[in-house]
Amino acid sequence: MELRAEEITSVISKEIADFKDDLKMESVGTVLQIGDGVARIYGLEKCKSSELLEFENGVNGIALNLEEDSVGAVLLGDSTKVREGQTVKSTGQIISVPVGDAMLGRVVNALGEPIDGKGPISTDKMRPIEYNAPNVVGRQPVKEPLQTGIKAVDSMIPIGRGQRELIIGDRQTGKTAVCLDTIINQKEFYDAGEPVYCIYVAIGQKQSTVLRVMETLEKYDAMKYTIIVSASASDPAPMQYIAPFSGCAMGEEFRDSGRHALIIYDDLWKHAVAYRQVSLLLRRPPGREAFPGDVFNLHSRLLERAAKLNDELGAGSLTALPIVETQAGDFSAYIPTNVISITDGQIYLENDLFYAGVRPAINAGLSVSRVGGNAQTKAMKKVGGTLRLTLAQYRELEAFTKFGSELDKSTQAQLNRGERLVEILKQPQYSPASVDEQVMIIYAVGQGLIDDVPVDQMKKFEKDFIDYMKQNQPDLVAKLKSEKELTSDIAEGITAACDQFKKTFLA
Amino acid sequence: MISRRVAKRYINGLLQVAQQQNKVEEVEKALAAIDGMIRDRADLRDVLFHPTIPRQHKKSLLHKLMGDCPDLFKRFVDFVVDKKRERIFECAYEEYRDSADHLRGVVRGRIKSATALTGDQEQLLATELGRTLGKKVVLDYEVDAGMLAGMQVFIGSYIVDGSLTSRLNRLHKHLLDEVSQIKSDA
């Protein structure tokens, strides 16, 4: 674009001529005390809670403590620019972030400002970060599946659109990996024109980690339907505190326009820690583990905004996958128990399993999904129904085998089946499987069709079997895909195909 | 900070009693006198706020300084000294005046203008502001040539900013916003 000097002059003079500046009464206060990202302000008589405040030099703040003779506020920016005695204006608004399709593919900070160096974001839609969750009438039960592409999750711990499923585990157990796989798996739906938009909120993480997430998503072509909201460890605590709310506002825009969105909060433990810091600096009384008393409300009002809306409201949905990191496996600590009780189930990842090579390291016994079962496709429900039980029985028997005692035939068979099942549920990272693929292989194992394939060849068998089915039985696969049900003739078809393939595989 | 909150409590008590005895104005005058002395005299401050000087000395000193004033006020001073809350005298007058103003339906404000206002202008401003706020307005006037033209009105924690410098600043910000908008469209 080429601009001539006269054009610029005319634009500017037009702007100046049109500039209207009405006198209005503004509520102001003075900064009494400033430090640690927290300010105490005198004045601001009619200030409301969570109101956006404007400091001099363009720094913004949020009023959090309304006291008799002062207002306690947190600063969302460089606190070194604010000095004692400066004036503060109240704006009468709650802080808002830009939302909409223009945000997709971008990395933004907690205020919605781009930090990926790809230029400004052109969207004029804004949403307040604090917003009431939909009420009872505005909702409907979870009924559509959200496919994670992870066999262990989709079969045993199904997640529905609008559900809140906690992902909990120690550090380095693959919590983020589960979420990234889920985002990558949504590509199938994006390409099919029924996108599930993804928002990844990184709270208190290293910037290098956020970069790696972005690069991974770019590599698997998943950034085009994803927004990353980053409040890294070096950002001030108030930014980390509002980041999940900003991300949620972006997700609500999709939900309220009748579309589907998935939001990942990585992680809420660090979020609670940031909130604890803010609260203690504001001199609010500490409670258990020094967290403030309203930390439960903080997380429940955030997660309550994930919902499946009713048909009058457009039937959109916002699914939340909060992550909570436990410290040394202690999931009865304050924050983990809080979030467990808020969410509709949890996926429990375990260190021991991870090191035993079971990856994703999902503990099927402790993981549950309270509502997702209604959302499962009929086919998956059929093959996945007994899976959890079979696995539990296998785990129990496994303990016995350690004594080296003689085993009867049926026990031996159960053990064989279990071993193969565990092997099938292992899945490398970044390789999500579609529902029909999952149904076929789990059906084959569950029915004992491949009990005679050696355990160490299961991986290869699975891959070759899926390829074989796609090439030699495309009609059957297509039928399974369209009907989403495991009718008897499809089941028979799979059984026959499996037997045939096994012969060539084992030969 | 703490002293202001404490002062509020004591002053509200004092005002209530003064109201019952119909001595609001007298007490205000006495408080103003003490406030002036504390502000001007560093040695008085040193004695009054010193933690080891006996209360009796402080009381007798204050009594001598106060001269003629309502008994009610003398008792108040004794009470404050007994409670070791001498610090509240630092902001007692301000608090008392604000609370008393509230009772009288008066608001205090400050006008900052680029040039001195004429008497007629001051009169007009006070009546107009009084009409919009529905209260009697008492104004202080101040001249600040730095704002080039126009004026600013400060009332309580509210401000009406009609100075030329602020308007130019707002125009500056508006133009910058336009530029960033054009950039993002391009």
Structure, explained:
Chain A is an alpha/beta fold and 507 residues long. Chain A has helices spanning 5-18, 151-156, 175-185, 187-191, 207-219, 237-256, 268-281, 295-303, 334-342, 351-355, 378-384, 387-401, 409-425, 435-446, 458-472, 474-483, 488-506; strands at residues 25-35, 38-43, 51-55, 60-66, 71-75, 87-94, 96-98, 107-108, 126-128, 166-169, 196-203, 226-231, 260-266, 317-325, 345-349, 368-369. Chain A has 17 helices and 16 strands. In chain A, helix 6 crosses helix 7, helix 11 packs parallel to helix 14 (435-446) and helix 13 (409-425) packs antiparallel against helix 14. Chain B has 186 residues and is α+β, with helices and mostly antiparallel strands. Chain B folds into 2 domains: 4-101, Peroxidase, domain 1 (Orthogonal Bundle); 105-185, no CATH class. In chain B, 65% of the residues lie in helices and 15% in strands. Chain B is built from 8 helices and 4 strands, in the order ααααααβαβββα. Chain B has helices spanning 2-20, 24-40, 42-48, 55-66, 71-82, 89-104, 119-133, 164-185, and strands spanning 106-113, 136-143, 150-155, 158-163. In chain B, strands 2-1-3-4 form a 4-stranded mixed sheet. In chain B, a hairpin with a 2-residue loop joins strand 3 (150-155) and strand 4 (158-163). In chain B, helix 2 packs antiparallel against helix 6 (89-104) and helix 4 runs antiparallel to helix 5. The relative contact order of chain B is 0.11. The A-B interface holds A 1, 12, 15-16, 19, 21, 23-29, 32-33, 40, 43-45, 68-70, 87, 119-122 and B 1, 4-5, 8, 156-162, 167, 170-171, 174-175, 178, 180, 183-186.
Keywords for this structure?
heterodimer; A: 507 residues; alpha/beta; 8-stranded mixed beta sheet; 6-stranded antiparallel beta barrel; 17 helices; elongated; B: 186 residues; alpha+beta; Peroxidase, domain 1; 2 domains; 4-stranded mixed beta sheet; 8 helices; 65% helix
